[in-house]
Every structure is written in C-alpha cells, then in structure tokens.
Amino acid sequence: MAFTELGLLPQYMSLSGPNRVFFNVHADGLGWAIPAALGAQLADRNRLVISMVGDGSYMFTNPTACHQIAKALELPILIIIKNNGMWNAVRRSVVKAYPDGTAAQSNTMPLTSLEPAPNFSMIAQASRAHAEQVLNPQDLPSALQRALRVIREEKRQVLLDLRVAGCGIGSILMDWFNIACLVPAFYFGGVLKGATGAGAPIIAIPIISLLYDVPTAVAAFTIPNFPSNVWHSWKFRSHQTTGMFAWAFAGFGLLGAVVGTTKLAYLSPSLLSLILSTIVVAYLIFRRLKSDWILPLDTARNFGPSVGFIGGTLQGAAGISAPVSITFLNTIKLARLTFIAVVSMFFVNMSVVQTTVLASYGI
Ligand SMILES: Cc1ncc(C[n+]2csc(CCOP(=O)(O)OP(=O)(O)O)c2C)c(N)n1
User: Fold this and answer.
1) Where does the chain hold its CATH 3.40.50.970 domain(s)?
2) Which of 136, 184, 201, 355 shows a CA-CA span of 20 to 30 A to 36?
3) Which atom of ligand 1 is nearest to the CA of 84?
4) Any residues with CB less than 8 A from the CB of 254 and at least 6 apart, and which?
5) Could you tell me which residues are beta bridge partners of residue 3?
C-alpha cells in the first residue's frame, strides 16, 4: 500500500487490486502522506505500507512527530524521499506563469532551493529508524532489500533518502559545465583584446549571458576589463591623441555608462537579451558592409562627446559598446597604438562606473 504526494507514476507499478495507491489532491496540503501511512499501518500491521514524498513535502510533514509516533506505536512504515534539493513544483509553476520573468531567467531560482540539504536520515535515526541515503541508482535495489528485511524482521520504520536529478549534485555539475565554457570565452576575448586593443566583450559577453543572464555577464566582465584597460592606457599613454579628443570621448562615455548601467538594473532580462543580440548582429552586418568609411580626426573631434555618450550607454546596458565606439574609432584610422590608447582610456572610465553602479544595485 503506497501513500504519495506529487509524482508517483502508477504506470510503472503492477497493481493487483484495490486500495493499493493513495494520492492527496494536488491543491491539497503537503505533509499528508506520512501521517496517512501511519494510520494505514495502524489499521493493518502486517501490510507493507510505503510513503513516498519529495524532500520539501517531507519537511511539511512535521517529521520528528511522525518518526516519534512510528517508534512509539511500533509502526514499521517505509518512507522514501525523492530528494531533488528543491521545491521543484514551485519552480515549475513560476516558469510556466512568468517564462520571461527574472526568476525564470536566473540560473538559480530564488527561494526554490533546499540546499544545503538537511540530513534527513539523522531526523529518522533520532527515533531509532533504520535510515540510509542512496546516492547512486545502482545502490537502490540492495537498499530496498535491506529496508524490507528491517521492516519484516525487526518491525522497525525505515527511511530511504534518494538523491535524484535536479539536486545539488546536478547543479554542481552544471556549475562546472558553465566554468568549462567560461574559460574559452574569457581566453579568446583576451586574445582579441591583446591583439587589437579591443573587442573582448563582443566574444565573451554573449557567451556568458547565454550561461547566466545579461546583468551577470556585464558585471562579470567589468572585473577583467578594468585592470587590462588601465594597463593598456598607461603603457600606450605616449601615443595618446593630442588635445581633448580622448578625454571628451571617454568623459561622455562615462556619463553614458551611468545611464546605461541604470537601465541594466531595471530593464527586463528578455529585453536586455534582445538589445544584446541586436547590437552584435548590427555590428557584424555593419563591419561587413561599411569597412571602408574614413573620418578625419579633426571632424571626428566634433562627434567625440556624442558618440562616446551613446557607446557608454550601450556598454552600461549590454556590456558591449564596440558597434558604436570601435566603429567610430576605426573610421578615424588612428595608428594602432593610438587607437589602443584612446579605446583603453574609454574603457577605464566605463569600468569605474560599471563596478561602482552595479555594486550599489547589488548586481
Ligand atoms: C501546505 C502546503 N503548502 C504549500 C503547498 C504548495 N506546494 C505544492 S508542491 C510544493 C513543493 C513540493 O516540494 P517537494 O516535495 O520537494 O517536491 P518537488 O516539487 O521538488 O518534486 C509546494 C510548496 C502545498 N501544496 N501545501
């Protein structure tokens, strides 16, 4: 006889008569399946009574009271916890209701994790239960055999805590997978930056935002961005342009970054992803079609502040300013080292704004 909350699949069971499986109504209160199993065991002490619950449902049961009464009345029920380390039903409902919402887009949905997992076996053992954690599927048959032996021969309650997919171990593997993808993202971004003086974000930000989200990608990238650009600005300072051009470009970029970074904190994740992908695609198309534009430096000086401001806004909101900033500098046809000096000064300003504003928003 089985009592279950959320997720028992009768089609995988051979049921040979009535009164074998009992579900509670899904909209009902969690915490029913173990007390119900205790009542059934009390009614028929010779029957095998199993209670199957999720880890969240188990906590709703008031387990200490249940194990205590199982011991006090010698009710040898078998409790099986399907432990996925989270309130998955809650996560699923949120994703269905708000597929584009902040919670659905985040890598770890807030308030759904049950990690760090409590040691449920110890709760059961406190009332003399036989309790085991089962970490690998191949260990399950032997754990079930031991459970049946204890129930039949010792007349003791048993708890099996089964770690199943979606639990912390799975998310740890996911983290390692993400890290494995981040290494080439940063590496190739860095190679491009080292070779050309710019362009790292155009490789790294889209990859990071696919694994996490746009704000995380932008915030993560400000960290390597700052020292590399300070280093380039300093190293190539003697190649800097004359007059106020670089200062105006970078200064208005800084103002734009304040505006853009504020947008990053407030715009919806899907809109930010759309902006990011549009920027990348527009940049690639523009580079393909208009690679031969030339703008004399003296004319460019007039546009420096406004282009810097727009570039800064894009940098702040999406982490990528290249379509505006780099394209603009490319059309001036600066010498390579002068280009690096100007663009690095621009990015130093961006990074200062981004790190301080993002930190103040807690991103
Ligand atoms: C008393 C009560 N509170 C809240 C709910 C809403 N609710 C339905 S399923 C669920 C999460 C169950 O988590 P778990 O048992 O770990 O199973 P999972 O969803 O992870 O498979 C919650 C909180 C409920 N049904 N009953």
Assistant:
1) 2-165
2) 136
3) 20
4) 312, 349, 350, 352, 353
5) 22, 51
Using an 8 Å Cβ cutoff, are 205 and 273 in contact?
Answer: no
Q: Would you say residue 169 has pLDDT above 60? A: no
Residue 17 above 50 pLDDT? yes
**What is the structure's pLDDT at 256?**
92
Whether the pLDDT of residue 168 is over 60: the answer is no
3-state class (DSSP) for residue 133: strand
Q: Ligand 1 pocket test: which of 4, 51, 80, 88 has the largest number of ligand atoms within 8 Å of its C-beta?
A: 88
Ligand 1 atom at minimum distance from 57 CA: 15
* Stretch (H or E) spanning 114: none
Distance 129 CA to ligand 1 centre (A): 25
For atom 10 of ligand 1, the residue with the nearest CA is 89
Q: H or E element: which one contains 86?
A: none
Residue 78 in 3-state DSSP? strand
Is pLDDT at 131 greater than 60 in this prediction? yes
* CATH 3.40.50.970 assigned to 2-165: yes
189-206 pLDDT, tens digit each: 888 877 776 778 888 888
Taking the centre of ligand 1 as the mean of its atom positions, its distance from the CA of residue 159, in whole angstroms, is 20
Give the helix, strand, coil percentages of the chain, each rounded to 5.
65, 10, 25
What is the C-alpha to C-alpha distance for residues 298 and 152, in angstroms, rounded to an integer?
92
Which class for 222: exposed (0-12), middle (13-18), buried (19 or more C-beta within 10 A)? buried
Tokens read off for 204 = 């790294």
